[in-house]
């Protein structure tokens, strides 16, 4: 049995194209027999990580790069300027000790070696690896491979602990993600629309002899919709990945903030689709995580006065109750942030403000996490 | 024998058997390795933990609502935005509903049933981004696998039932381990490599199995969708 924190978000986006396929169309999926707008889970996870980068201490965040030798060599040179000449070589030794294969980059000549895939390293991991490399160089001893591997396994950053890490060469270094994010889909049938645009050539327009035709024209595909977004955090896994209940609670708070407030950046300069969630529902559970997307399998219909939003909230609330009544699965705690005030919202949990939300989630989860730590 | 029945439904599922490099495919029905892996995850087993006891389980699936394959075009960049990663295509099965049956020892299956109701690791329909939108287990049945898959009510969504205008019952494809079909009844079969031998990422390994294909009538279309409590009422104790 584990502790899960389910996050449900209802969010409307105006005309926008935050996540598109190779033909430039907003991504879509079929559900309940009709086409929906879709934003992939990967897209929103990246937006969440970028949000972390802006808001978190550097020590909590990781870098995800193939240029690992360069990254580590820079840190070695920072920590020991006298070794800057041999920093790249020392960095290579570290990755060799961890059995991570390195190769010359294809496009950049004379650049330091790269790993064959993106490696996710926390800032403190880079520092500690640099420390090991410097110590071995000073003592004139070979690197202790065990110590190197230990660093890779410990002190994971918040984002590595949440989103996981895969190391193809050495699966011992893998970190299983503690959070799971679903693809966001619209609560209603949503077709893509086309914006035909023309752009005026100012010089041509000024000229008396020229016609007034456009300098260029084209189409942009977009969609607007009310979306259901869902993520769940496995608290036990998060504690394991971060090594302490306190760190896990901190990561949970950060994730709640980041997942709710972030927005993928696709075509944002074109559409300025900066919206915030209309409603956030957080359920703390000790049975199983439950996505409430089933509420929208029957597509919601817009109401002339209230749009898709009220109907979406009502469907969400009714479905949550259906699940509770039929399966007898009740969350340990329910918290709601909503711009609307209705019976549907009240039925989903205790109303709180967003400013209080992550703190209240922490309070609800802390006893479950801390008691388990003491129990084990 | 005892059979554990699952209803696998959600906006998206992905059951990869032959994914290679940037082509992450899906089969048109849940794979044995995917479902057994999900049961192991529910019970809190790590990828490196032994799964010998699960290898004796027989597996079958009924396509109650076949769904549609959709492609997800996937790009990736380093977080600093500098280096692009290979483009990949991920295929998903959208809007599908399956009835899966796992046949085996009663004690083992009732333990797994309990684990599905209180999973240690969060469950997903083949890919981590596809969480199931409702509890998966329909409970245990005392029956042979093929019979259990034949007699369970149609699990399709209401809209899909309504779309079947014909008076005839819907013909659902059943794909089941060949061993669970009597020798004289065997016929339409094919081989597939999705028997989990080890989930250990260092030496992930799959064996072959023969799958027997059947078309069985389900339905007819009813106004009332399935009653989840029915599964609880029919719950059977191990003898």
From TrEMBL, chain A:
One Pfam family of this chain: Cas_CT1975
Source species, domain of life: Bacteria
Name of this protein: Type I-E CRISPR-associated protein Cas7/Cse4/CasC
Biological source species: Actinomyces respiraculi
Protein's gene: cas7e
Automatic annotation (TrEMBL), chain B:
GO MF entries: RNA binding
Entries under Gene3D superfamilies matching the protein: 3.30.70.2660
Segments crossing the lipid bilayer: none
Superkingdom, taxonomy of origin: Bacteria
Listed InterPro entries: CRISPR-assoc_prot_Cas5, CRISPR-assoc_prot_Cas5_N, CRISPR-assoc_prot_CasD
GO biological-process terms attached to the record: defense response to virus; maintenance of CRISPR repeat elements
Keywords of this entry: Antiviral defense
A Pfam short name: Cas_Cas5d
CDD domains reported for this sequence: Cas5_I-E
NCBIfam families per record: casD_Cas5e (TIGR01868), CRISPR_cas5 (TIGR02593)
The protein's name: Type I-E CRISPR-associated protein Cas5/CasD
Organism: Actinomyces respiraculi
Gene that specifies this protein: cas5e
